[in-house]
């Protein structure tokens, strides 16, 4: 064996030992802690009880109630919507990852912004439960200043301002940097193994400009993570465009350990409105080649999916098995979400486990 070959095979042998989790070899089986540190009214309507209909996101809630009343409501929600018992249930069911959506305001509130601070402590608390019980954590910047998608789940619904102001981008980079620095400490390094730079950026109205800005942001956020953390995987969301757009994260040697995140719901959009359950199951198969091809480039995970369909399916177990089988043919999945405040079981991991629909530790095979 030549010296170079020897050196290469040593690297090939040693590199995986550095991972906190063998991505690409063992599937991610995960769950989102949704509607927690970034409110979503449809998921936890009780947090909005008694408020006018137009108070429909966290920004408006805090603005409307004023700081101390908003803080009271949020803290009682933060204290109860995710518990250690939930984490233990997920571990025992065979899950191995938890994704924690965060708003930028967990780190950075400017004067004049109504956000309530304190949510970061809860993220740390949940990460601690995951560490205790042996689950990996993905920290996910879900809400950026100005909003990257105009949806309530960015914290502020309405206009999409993120891309149009350098300060919005640099504040977000700083948040990601702080998460990465925190996660590099020895007590977290092996638990917090993925940092996601931004959730669901939307490009459509102003596609070329926003895509350019998003790529700039992804580059800066990647560098910020790497300046602080040599172990975490950096996850990028596909922005709902063709996955091939992101292959440069593999082809450009500047980048390493990048994960591609795509979200595959079958409930939003006209094409899903009138399908039978069997057709929904078949749709999962249609994703298989595209996920497989992407996964040959970058670890590719389905960071959000659910069992919700417009007409409802009465064989949720088949629909789950089919999706899980396809997603595990790539690098795995995170279900949305851990629970649902309206008891919509198709959106709730707890219900789906209790009902036997999702069986993470069984061999989930897709029939395609
Ligand atoms: C983000 O940028 C937009 C567009 O310039 C601006 O209107 C908005 O105030 C910024 N948001 C924050 C939170 O700074
Ligand atoms: C992260 O932590 C490791 C292990 O303690 C250390 O070697 C490294 O210098 C730290 N910083 C970066 C940027 O990785």
From TrEMBL:
This is glucan 1,3-beta-glucosidase. Residues 1-20 form the signal peptide. Its main location: secreted. It is found in: Secreted. Keywords: Cell wall biogenesis/degradation, Glycosidase, Hydrolase, Secreted, Signal. It comes from Orchesella dallaii. The keyword Secreted applies. It catalyses: Successive hydrolysis of beta-D-glucose units from the non-reducing ends of (1->3)-beta-D-glucans, releasing alpha-glucose.
């Amino acid at each position: 064996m030549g010296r170079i070959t020897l050196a290469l095979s040593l690297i090939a042998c040693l590199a995986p030992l550095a991972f906190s989790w063998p991505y690409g070899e063992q599937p991610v089986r995960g769950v989102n802690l949704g509607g927690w540190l970034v409110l979503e009214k449809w998921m936890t309507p009780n947090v909005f009880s008694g408020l006018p209909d137009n108070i429909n996101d966290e920004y408006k809630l805090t603005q409307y109630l004023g700081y101390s009343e908003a803080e009271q409501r949020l803290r009682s929600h933060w204290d109860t919507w995710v518990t250690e018992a939930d984490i233990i249930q997920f571990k025992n069911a065979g899950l191995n990852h938890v994704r924690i959506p965060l708003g930028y305001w967990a780190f950075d509130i400017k004067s004049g912004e109504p956000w309530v601070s304190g949510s970061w402590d809860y993220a740390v608390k949940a990460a601690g439960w995951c560490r205790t019980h042996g689950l990996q954590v993905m920290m996910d910047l879900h809400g950026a200043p100005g909003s990257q998608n105009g949806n309530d789940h960015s914290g502020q619904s309405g206009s999409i301002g993120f891309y149009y102001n350098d300060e919005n981008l640099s504040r977000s980079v700083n948040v990601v940097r702080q998460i990465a620095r925190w996660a590099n400490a020895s007590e977290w390094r092996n638990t917090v193994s993925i940092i996601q730079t931004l959730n669901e950026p939307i490009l459509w109205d102003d596609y070329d400009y926003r895509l350019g800005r998003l790529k700039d942001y992804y580059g800066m956020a990647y560098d910020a993570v790497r300046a602080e953390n040599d172990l975490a995987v950096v996850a990028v969301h596909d922005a709902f465009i063709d996955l091939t757009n992101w292959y440069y994260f593999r082809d450009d040697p500047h980048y390493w350990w990048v994960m591609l995140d795509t979200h595959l719901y079958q409930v939003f959009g006209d094409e899903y409105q009138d399908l039978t359950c069997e057709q929904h199951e078949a749709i999962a198969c249609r994703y298989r080649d595209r996920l497989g091809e992407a996964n040959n480039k970058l670890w590719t995970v389905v960071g959000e999916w659910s069992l919700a369909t417009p007409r409802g399916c009465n064989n949720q177990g088949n629909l789950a098995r089919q999706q899980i089988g396809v997603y595990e043919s790539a690098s795995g999945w995170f279900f949305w979400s851990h629970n649902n405040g309206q008891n919509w079981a198709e959106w709730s991991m707890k219900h789906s486990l209790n009902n036997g629909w999702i069986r993470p530790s069984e061999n989930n095979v897709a029939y395609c």
